[in-house]
């Protein structure tokens, strides 16, 4: 989502020194470009009382096509000509909300600190940043028409080789390459999560099977009496199965909201400067959770059915009567 919905550029190019915004026009003579936007990215220290954090403030065009900002409610936002957008993890660190002012300390000699109002708090899966309108940021924090890089959309396969040789360019980052790195990392994460799912399934199987076995042993006299009354072992098993299914469904109704709350708490606990964990309320997730729960419960019932077939309820009744 970060590299497809939040950021939409193909390449992120940084200069080795700040340049005038007119430098954007030179790229058309160097490589084949579909669309380009200037940017300014500079580190500043934001503070709210004793709470401080050093972050990169990124200046963008007000009608940027490379970023899609949304607030915590999922509503789309546009850059304001005044004020500053900050990510939610930064807002939590500084303990600020929309409308508050933060003190911006510049590391550039001769620049005075100034207060800037927070216009919006936005969602951002990876990283921690603040965002301002390009000309407003340059005028208030840096110098007019100063940029430190550009964002580019291009189908030129040799763009990286071409631009790395160009003057004043320090780095060329490909979004596609970064996505591949994260996919490789996510494959290991998915493998570990799959192992946890299997282990939790084995644990669930053991709990249901043991609970059912204890129930059968405690109700052995009852089931023996039912056998005398003409109930088959299959009918007795159906009674146990229905009871366990009622408990399973009730557990799902309790477990889904409880699991969602736990997930949100874990997301807040483990969110940091590098990433923000967000719980996605996709119905598919709950369907899979319920599906796997049913699978492991049914496997336990299958083992229970074998146990019921091996039990001699009539002999048990005979022993109790004697």
Written description of the protein model:
The mean pLDDT is 87. The longest helix is centred in the middle third of the chain and has 44 residues, at 175-218. The chain is of the alpha+beta class and 322 residues long. The strands form two sheets. Strands 2-3-9-6-8-7 form a six-stranded mixed beta barrel. Strands 4-5 form a two-stranded antiparallel ribbon. The chain contains ten helices and eleven strands. The protein starts with a helix and ends with a helix. α6 runs parallel beside α9 (283-310), α7 crosses α10 and α8 (233-270) packs antiparallel against α9.
Beta-strand percentage range: 15-25%
Please outline the major beta sheet: 6 strands, mixed, barrel
What structural category arises from helix and sheet content?
alpha+beta
Shape: elongated
Helix content: 40-55%
Order of helices and strands: HEHEEEEEHEEEHEHEHHHHH
How many DSSP E strands? 11
Largest sheet strand order: 2-3-9-6-8-7
Distance between the termini: 71 Å
Low-confidence stretches: none
Query: Rg from C-alpha positions?
Result: 31 Å
The pLDDT mean sits at 87
Task: Show the helix and strand layout.
Layout (H helix, E strand, L loop, with lengths): L1 H5 L4 E10 L6 H4 L4 E14 L2 E10 L8 E2 L5 E2 L6 E4 H7 L6 E6 L7 E9 L6 E5 H8 L4 E8 L5 H6 L4 E6 H44 L1 H9 L4 H38 L12 H28 L2 H9 L1
Parallel strand pairs: 3-9, 6-8
Antiparallel strand pairs: 1-10, 1-11, 2-3, 2-7, 2-10, 4-5, 6-9, 7-8
Helix pairs in contact: 6-9, 7-10, 8-9
């Amino acid at each position: 989502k970060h590299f497809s919905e939040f950021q939409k550029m193909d390449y992120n190019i940084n200069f080795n020194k700040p340049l005038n915004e007119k430098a954007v026009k030179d790229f058309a003579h160097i490589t084949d470009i579909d669309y380009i936007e200037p940017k300014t990215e500079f580190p500043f220290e934001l503070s709210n009382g004793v709470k401080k954090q050093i972050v990169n403030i990124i200046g963008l065009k007000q009608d940027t096509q490379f970023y899609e900002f949304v607030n915590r409610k999922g509503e789309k936002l546009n850059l304001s000509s005044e004020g500053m957008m900050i990510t939610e993890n930064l807002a939590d660190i500084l303990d600020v909300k929309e409308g508050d002012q933060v003190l911006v300390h510049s590391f550039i000699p001769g620049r005075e600190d100034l207060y800037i109002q927070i216009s919006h708090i936005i969602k951002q899966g990876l990283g921690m940043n603040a965002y301002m309108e390009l000309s407003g940021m340059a005028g208030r924090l840096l110098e007019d028409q100063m940029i430190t890089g550009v964002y580019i959309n291009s189908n030129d396969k040799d763009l990286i080789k071409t631009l790395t040789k160009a003057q004043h360019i320090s780095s060329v980052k490909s979004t596609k390459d970064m996505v591949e790195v994260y996919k490789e990392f996510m494959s290991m994460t998915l493998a570990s999560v799959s192992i946890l799912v299997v282990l939790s399934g084995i644990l669930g199987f053991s709990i249901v099977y043991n609970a059912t076995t204890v129930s059968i042993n405690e109700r052995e006299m009852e089931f023996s009496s039912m056998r005398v009354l003409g109930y088959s072992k299959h009918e007795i098993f159906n009674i146990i199965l229905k009871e366990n299914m009622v408990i399973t469904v009730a557990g799902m109704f309790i477990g889904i909201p409880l699991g969602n709350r736990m997930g949100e708490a874990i997301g807040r606990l483990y969110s940091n400067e590098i990433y923000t964990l967000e719980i996605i309320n996709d119905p598919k997730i709950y369907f899979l959770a319920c599906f796997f729960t049913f699978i492991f419960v049914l496997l336990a019932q299958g083992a229970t059915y074998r146990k019921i077939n091996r039990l001699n309820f009539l002999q048990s009744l005979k022993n109790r009567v004697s």
